[in-house]
Design goal:
This protein is 45% helix and 13% strand. The protein has 429 residues and is an alpha/beta fold. The longest helix has 16 residues.
Length: 429
Amino acid sequence: MKNFVEELRWRGMIQDMMPGTEEQLQKEMTSAYLGIDPTADSLHIGHLVGVMMLRHFQRCGHKPYALIGGATGMIGDPSGKSKERVLIDEPMLRHNQECIRKQLAKFLDFESDAPNHAELVNNYDWMKDFTFLDFIRNIGKLITVNYMMSKDSVKRRFTGENGAEGMSFTEFTYQLLQGYDYLYLNEHKNCKLQLGGADQWGNITTGTELIRKVTGNEAFALTCPLITKADGKKFGKTEQGNVWLDPKRTSPYKFYQFWLNVADDDAKRYIRIFTSLEREEIEELERQQAEASHLRPLQKRLAKELTIMVHSQEDWELAVAASELLFSNGGAEQLRQFDETTLLQIFESVPSFEVSREVFNEGRAVDILAEGMGVSKGEFRKLVQGGGISVNKQKLTAFDQQFTDADLLQGKYLVAQKGKKNYFLATVK
């Protein structure tokens, strides 16, 4: 068995760890769990740190449990939050859980008969029949309010730090619910370790305290740092919001582009955290990056590994082809090979405009494109004369050129280009 703690250590994935954790993992195959909030029907890349912890755990010979928080998701974790969460009903949670399971299966082995195959559990299954009176009698009496108030996630909300607005009793009880999850899994699945982000330390240690008081069993905790970008800003979000694993929410092309465009300093950290590449291979990529950073070997390999793991080899190849298409002078034939879905994914973030079928049939290039591209007809004419306008990756040679249906991509699109980098998508309707 590989040493899991050492594996995380060189990858920069350990924030806090209870004494005895490494010794326990070296002693025997150990079960551990990590909780996932099912408040959306897809994971986003902010979840990937935890998912990769489970992946490394399994690859080191241990047994991972992914806990879908069906019950706790109805409450909302106050950690890292300054406001109350919007609560979700059970049908939506069940839908979200099924979607998340499919995504987790790309990272973890759920199907084999190996003794350390991954398992998915849902805390709603053991919480749904737990009455309020039973809970406060059997669990609530074991942890003091003073202990719960000492947790950073609670203190920040009570003191109003960073604009926090206080905390309801519902959210105050969250750490007891999460603590009970650990107790339940310790008793029923022999889980001896809980994994999570640094913001979960308080909730996790509440669980170890419950286990100690109820059973006297050993229980351990290990958290990873919260990932930020080199500039200190929050990791995983763009101007458009979260970067999702679901291709309907974030296209494979945009997913690939996110990783391809991370800063050099971030790429050095991310390739250790978000891939399963071995240390020697990563160090070789770092050496290549130091010698020729403009070739971006770290970013390219990072984007490749993650796009294939989350989506597919085909999606990665398509994303590479699309990237080369956008930043090269050629590619007219390649552009015609993309289906409509891929074409729209590639150009989803560029300015777009509509052209009536009548204007397309009767007008000249300048009539069809100038206004949508934000230039006057006179400017358009000058740009064409200077070789500065392309349509479907071919230089436009005449401002008054007339198009036919044969020029349309997928029967209704024109990709116009001003200079090298300014793209526009025209849709003929």
